[in-house]
Amino acid sequence: MSRANPSGSLAAYVRDLPKAELHLHIEGTLEPELALRLAHKHGVALPFADAAELRAAYDFSDLQSFLDLYYALAEVLRDGDDFYRLGLSYMQRAHEQGVVHAEIFFDPQTHTARGIAFGAVVEGLRLACTEAERRFGMTHRLIACFLRHLSAAEANRTLDEVLEHREIVTAVGLDSSEVGHPPSKFAAVFDRAREQGLLTVAHAGEEGPPAYIHEALDLLGVRRIDHGVRCEEDPALVRRLIREQIALTVCPLSNVKLGVFDRIEDHNLKRLLEAGLRVTVNSDDPAYFGGYLLENYLAVERALGLTRAQLATLARNSIAGSFLDADAKRRWIDLIDSRSDDEPAA
Length: 346
Ligand code: HPA
Ligand code: ZN
Hints:
- This protein is an alpha/beta fold.
- It is 50% helix and 14% strand.
- The radius of gyration is 19 Å and the shape is globular.
- Residues 23, 25, 175, 203, 226, 284 line the site of zinc ion.
């Protein structure tokens, strides 16, 4: 990677900033071409003739309309090799965009409910991440998410399986349909996860109210908030997030695709960043939302007019908000500082 040149292209500048991706659902990296290939491999009938027809179905009105298609397409992921291919394809693309560290969500229940063994999923992903470390020098963490539309008892059973693979899984998270499924529903499961030494994160404040963000912090002990953009409706909460430097894993293209903001120009990312929140940029489900990490950075830069110093701050926040150890964080942040010294930090 070359030292950033102030007159160089902005895309190259952002690409060359070392970045962590902290909000990425591996099932959401399933590109139509791979979905069709795997459907053929496993004899799964999909109601789409080709990749173009499948892409045309990516027209969502809200989170639920997306999740319905997302869970339906996950049907084609059936063995460890599928998860290996999915994981390695993502890591390769992320590497090409300057991602040096990826913290990857997976949804065990989407697979175990169909009779796919938890071990096949997690082993396939682990092998992909190990291969990405060997080929690209990338580091990773795996985060198992509970589906919040299912019961706490089902999440508890999934936690049992996570604990059987304790050395592969770093943290647990909470995703799927947010409204009506507050973090409080899972307080006891998350207590148990933390007692067993797992870290915790949760989606909150994407479609759900700021109260869900408070609950995630107070009842689930989360280290960061996934999305969290609705925090702005509660000034006391915003002050708390700043004070405690809780990272928000914001996903700009996702937010527009799912109607959280009507247009990218309306996104509150720049306001939150300038208020002093530890904002990060992430891609969520890039195969469905029109772009991987670099496209998300460039979309907000273009629409909101971020400076190079602010782009470097977003990259720095992604490292600071990650589960890397202090030494690794220091090394990456020093490198970002050395690349962004053409302008004072924002
Ligand atoms: N929100 C909730 N659940 C999800 C998402 C999301 O953005 N992506 C995949 N599962
Ligand atoms: Zn998400």
